[in-house]
Specification:
The chain has about 400 residues and is an alpha+beta fold. Helices cover about 30% and strands about 20% of the residues. It is built from eight helices and eleven strands. The strands form three sheets. Strands 8-9-7-10-11 form a five-stranded antiparallel beta sheet. A four-stranded mixed beta sheet has the order 1-2-4-3. It has a two-stranded antiparallel sheet with strand order 5-6. Helix 3 (about 155-170) packs across helix 4 (about 180-190). The longest helix is centred in the middle third of the chain and has 20 residues, at about 250-265. The two termini are about 30 Å apart.
């Protein structure tokens, strides 16, 4: 996701409930049980205001594997909006714990590790939001973060921290905030946000405004993704990327790709989805300029893949396979991995997207499954790079 280069505008009143209503989420009818801050965050709940352990709450948020489509699109009113469609990834994520200190001034809010400034801003905003809903004065507290999302690869590490922090604060108040509220707070905290508050729902999301432009379906069609990193996995400074204004021709092309992606989702056409993702990735190279991109696409073509996808603000990439295509899927995936590694494009993990919609649960979303023997993420707090130990897994029936 490319960071905004100007202050984000708040969602308009006509879209206030868009995230909840359009994504099909139903407001919760009861107060959130203590300790359920790892849920999907849909539905605003007015609870007791005491949370877990009388003022402590927990939260979790997933990450993603870059984008399937990113560009500038037209909203329902014909206004240009930066938007993106992310590829969900289960496993890595951020975990947060917030201990509220009633009576402490709101500015007395600390975060560990201390460098997670975006998450700290999100926690302060969430405290104000939750206290206002309950008619309480905002108070300080301590936010602790842990996670295993690699930073700088374009996997939404900062958004994962931000959403986990918001959910932990809400949980400490005995609340579960609606998705549109979480999105609004996330955009205010980091200027542009990935749609991780929606878990694995495939949507075209206006990342600088925190609203859905279009719901593309209940779930992605089944995909097998061979993950890898470009540029040796070096972190990308999104703020240092050159700004490029979209022309009318650019917007027209992005709208064409949006139409094709909508069709691919509706029909489960993985080949068409791969064409869209590849076209979006190729357009992204005008800014990112990965020297290995041509090699990546050639390897994908020779392996019989549907296409490739990349992070438009990072180094992570994926080769997309259709698991229903005839032939030896395992062999194609294995040859693809070997070719990538031979050409100096390190592989990371091989995973599959879901064939059924994710369910709301206080447990972390299991939107994707890791398979084969690709390196998995490190345990512990936020590995710096993609070279990770192997974890055996099996190719699931698709």
């Amino acid at each position: 996701m490319t960071s905004a280069t100007h202050p984000a505008r708040a969602p308009r009143a006509t879209h206030a409930a868009a995230l909840t209503a359009e994504a099909g989420a139903e407001p919760a009818a009861e107060p959130a049980p203590a300790g359920t801050g790892t849920g999907t965050g849909v539905g605003t709940v007015t609870g007791t205001g005491v949370g877990t352990d009388a003022g402590a709450g927990t939260g979790h948020a997933p990450c993603h594997h870059g984008e399937l489509l990113q560009g500038v699109f037209l909203d329902a009113d014909g206004r240009r909006c930066a938007g993106l469609v992310t590829l969900p990834l289960a496993g890595p994520g951020s975990r947060a714990e917030f201990v509220r200190r009633p009576g402490a001034p709101p500015e007395a809010l600390t975060v560990v590790p201390a460098d997670r400034r975006k998450a700290a801003r999100a926690a302060a905003l969430a405290v104000t939001e939750c206290a206002s809903q309950l008619g309480l004065p905002p108070s300080g507290g301590e936010l602790r973060l842990a996670g295993d999302v690699p930073m700088g690869l374009g996997m939404g590490s900062s958004t994962s921290d931000v959403i986990a922090a918001v959910r932990a604060v809400a949980d400490s108040y005995g609340l579960r905030l609606a998705s549109d509220v979480v999105a609004r707070l996330a955009v205010r905290a980091e200027r542009a946000s990935d749609p991780l508050m929606l878990d694995a729902r495939p949507v075209l999301f206006a990342q600088r405004e925190g609203r859905i432009l279009e719901v593309l379906g209940p779930t992605l069609p089944p995909l097998v993704v061979v993950g890898c990193v470009l540029g040796g996995g070096a972190p990308v400074d999104t703020l240092a990327l050159p700004a490029r204004e979209a022309s009318d021709a650019d917007v027209q092309e992005y709208e064409r790709l949006r139409t094709l992606l909508r069709r691919a989702m509706a029909t489960g056409d993985v080949r068409l989805l791969g064409r869209v993702a590849t076209a979006s990735a190729r357009r992204g190279q005008r800014v990112l300029g990965h020297p290995e991109f041509k090699t990546l696409t050639e390897i994908a073509r020779r392996a019989g893949a549907a296409g490739v996808q990349i992070a438009h603000s990072g180094a992570v990439a994926g080769v997309l396979f259709d698991p229903s295509a005839p032939g030896d899927l395992r062999g194609r995936v294995s040859r693809c991995r070997d070719a990538l590694n031979t050409h100096g494009i390190p592989t990371t993990r091989t995973f599959t997207t879901p064939a059924t919609p994710p369910t709301s649960s206080p447990a972390p979303s299991l939107a994707t499954k890791e398979l084969l023997d690709g390196p998995a993420h490190r345990r512990g707090d936020r590995p710096a790079g993609p070279d990770t130990p192997r974890r055996p897994s099996r190719l699931p029936a698709l």
